[in-house]
Structure formats: C-alpha cells, structure tokens
Design brief:
This protein has one helix at about 40-45, and strands at about 10-20, 25-30, 35, 55-60, 65-70. It is built from one helix and five strands, in the order βββαββ. The chain is mainly beta. The longest helix is centred in the middle third of the chain and has 7 residues, at about 40-45.
Length: about 80
Amino acid sequence: MEIAGTVHFVQATVREFDAASRAGSVFLDDGTVCPFGPEVFAASGLRLLRRGQRVAIRRGPSGAIAALALATLPLPPEQERER
C-alpha cells in the first residue's frame, strides 16, 4: 500500500554497480529499475555490490532510493530531510 509522503522500505536485486563511480541501479521485484547515486552507496558502509545481490532499500516520498544495505543487514539511519 502506498501512502503519499511516506517512506518506503523494500527489497531489490542489484542490476548493475560501477565501482569507479560508486553508483548503480537495482531491480524491484516488479521489474522496475531504480538508480542510486554514489552518496547513497557511501552512506551504506558497503565496499562493493555484485550483480544479483539482494539488498534492502529505503525510498523517499519522491520514489528515489535514499538508503541501501544488504538484505540481511539493517538500513543506515534515516537522515533529516531538508525542508
């Protein structure tokens, strides 16, 4: 169920990851591709992602990935949003 203005926690599968730029994308379970930037990867504390790995992601109200972690690890704490 999607409620406007809420934060979404879902699992996804790594589609691609560029170790040089530290950005990549994931497939949601419905096949939707969602990119993430280097700032999201840096905040994860991870060193590397491999294609096919399961990850947990937090999506903000806009739908953009705000945080990610391996599916077996807790997500990083939510940062204060700019107003």
